[in-house]
Specification:
The chain is of the alpha+beta class. The protein has one domain (4-126): Roll (Thiol Ester Dehydrase, Chain A), CATH 3.10.129. Helices cover 24% and strands 41% of the residues. It contains three helices and five strands. Strands 1-3-4-5-2 form a five-stranded antiparallel sheet. The longest helix has 19 residues, at 23-41.
């Protein structure tokens, strides 16, 4: 699946008491890039008709990030099945060293019924 990438710079509000990026911030970045990828690719009709909810999340922390580090986030879908998809997010520093990696299972929800919705071929094509 084709990846989506963005960058950010670590700010003081990203840091914990150890002066490196707080683990919770990585999870927020995972959610942020997933949402940005969805909003960039989906049409206004699809965005109106569907949204995603997180079912499960696994993150592996490799190396800390620090104030003013330039961070690259890369995300891509590794599979679709029924109403669910599995999304990978890789987070790198400017030396291209892997800082963290996550795998998240998401469920597509119909905005009207608030129930899981089978992922359509059209939605799959958006990310292939």
């Amino acid at each position: 699946m084709k990846p989506f990438e963005t960058t950010l710079i670590v700010t003081p509000s990203d840091l914990d008491e150890l002066n490196h990026v707080n683990n919770v911030r990585y999870i927020e970045w995972v959610q942020h890039i997933a949402k940005a990828h969805w909003q960039k690719n989906a049409s206004s009709t699809i965005l109106k008709d569907y949204y995603w909810v997180m079912l499960s999340h696994y993150i592996e922390y490799k190396t800390p990030a620090f104030l003013n580090d330039v961070i690259s986030l890369k995300t891509y879908i590794i599979n679709f099945k029924g109403a669910t998809s599995t999304r990978m997010v890789e987070i790198y520093n400017e030396a291209n060293k892997l800082l963290a990696k996550s795998e998240t299972n998401w469920c597509l929800i119909n905005s009207e019924t608030k129930r899981p919705a089978r992922i359509t071929p059209e939605i799959i094509r958006l990310f292939s």
